[in-house]
Amino acid sequence: MPTYRLSILGQEVSFRANVDEARILEAKKVILDRFNKLNTFGSRLSNEKLLILVALGLADDFLQTKQKLQKTEMKLKQLLEKIENK
């Protein structure tokens, strides 16, 4: 499993992940893009607080996507049951 070392907003982090480096860099880009959108001129929030807001936003996106997937799976299950009962 490869080891990665990233620097995000002055914070160093090392970790192991069984994923392609391109995916790691894409995730880093998503974090930085969201951070930059939140970090408006005149913002008095620290980088740490802004990163917490980024994490909350990503968690909310994940939960919404999970809910949509569950609904889609339920619809597919219902359609399969209709097909099998004919």
What's this model, at a glance?
This protein is α+β, with helices and mostly antiparallel strands and 86 residues long. Strand 1 and strand 2 form a beta hairpin.
Describe the structure.
- The chain has 86 residues and is α+β, with helices and mostly antiparallel strands.
- It has one domain.
- 65% of the residues lie in helices and 14% in strands.
- The protein has a two-stranded antiparallel sheet with strand order 1-2.
- Strand 1 (3-8) and strand 2 form a beta hairpin.
- Helix 1 (21-38) packs across helix 2.
- The longest helix is centred in the last third of the chain and has 38 residues, at 47-84.
- The protein is elongated.
- The N and C termini lie far apart (48 Å).
